[in-house]
Inverse folding.
């Protein structure tokens, strides 16, 4: 048995600015998407045999050529994504092989520098019996819940709060069932879709390196992280 990974990379990433879609912005001479694929391939214990990437319509051939050198002997499929993230995940999920896959990862290209051990922890937890798994890190800021007029209504105990990262891992039949149910309205990740079906979502330790490139200052942080890794 082996794993497959779905990478939704069809979004524009407007908060990052510029005309290039976020997944194709470069850090250290390579796109975030290339860094993400390279990092996934480095997680050898995950046994990734299939990469499925959803990209803007019309970019399939070019992206396939760009990524081919980084997937090794794994299968690479590039499909046209949709208007929203769940649409892109669903389009990619539709072509993931049914046979021989015991774990499907869903990974954001914007989290391009996830350490291999995080990826391997997610896959190991799915293979140990968890139906849905997310990597998490503790919340360090004080969090406030606010009302419609901006007033503070509650301060949750942050010891019970975590920030969720990717890749998220799923038993294949669970992820397919979540998407077939069409419960995508208002969801921010695939684990939330599974939660709505009553599926228990397990957590594993994430990493500060798995931050999401969202704003221009995150590109600077990514450049610094990459430079540090190259010195190791």
């Amino acid at each position: 048995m082996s794993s497959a990974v779905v990478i939704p990379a069809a979004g524009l990433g407007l908060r990052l600015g510029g005309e290039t879609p976020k997944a194709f912005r470069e850090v250290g001479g390579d796109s975030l998407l290339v860094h993400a694929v390279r990092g996934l391939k480095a997680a050898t214990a995950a046994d990734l045999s299939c990469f499925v990437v959803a990209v803007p319509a019309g970019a399939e051939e070019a992206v396939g050529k760009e990524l081919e050198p980084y997937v090794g002997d794994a299968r690479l499929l590039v499909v046209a994504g949709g208007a929203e993230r769940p649409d892109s995940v669903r389009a990619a999920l539709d072509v993931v092989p049914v046979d021989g896959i015991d774990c499907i990862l869903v990974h954001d290209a914007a989290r391009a520098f996830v350490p291999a051990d995080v990826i391997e922890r997610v896959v190991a937890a799915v293979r140990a019996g968890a139906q849905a798994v997310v990597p998490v890190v503790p919340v360090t800021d004080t969090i406030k819940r606010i009302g419609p007029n901006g007033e503070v209504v509650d301060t949750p105990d942050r010891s019970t709060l975590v920030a969720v990262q990717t890749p998220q891992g799923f038993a294949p039949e669970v992820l397919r069932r979540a998407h077939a149910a069409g419960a995508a309205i208002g969801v921010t990740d695939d684990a939330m879709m599974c939660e709505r079906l009553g599926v228990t979502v397990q957590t594993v330790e994430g990493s500060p390196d798995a931050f999401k490139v969202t704003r221009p200052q995150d590109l600077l942080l990514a450049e610094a992280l990459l430079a540090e890794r190259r010195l190791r």
